[in-house]
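WP5 quarterly update. Target: Fe-S oxidoreductase. Source organism: Manganibacter manganicus. Length: 79 aa.
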Amino acid sequence: MTAIESPCILVCSIDMKTGYCFGCGRTRDEISGWLDMTSETRRTIMAELPARLETVERKPRRETRRARMARERGEVIGS
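Structure tokens (predicted):
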């Protein structure tokens, strides 16, 4: 069995204004249907997530795994 890539960072809360999860940027429907989607559909959605996360009203309060890994590599994420 192959592992399914997921953008989930365990910050599961929906921004009521945008409808996107504060942690990963997916909608409720995308989250609930993630396992049933084709890998192509999941990749398409994942490509849209950084732009979506820029539109949420509140950023996660704790450092995410993605941000920590980028910081450790010396990358700059958002401001």
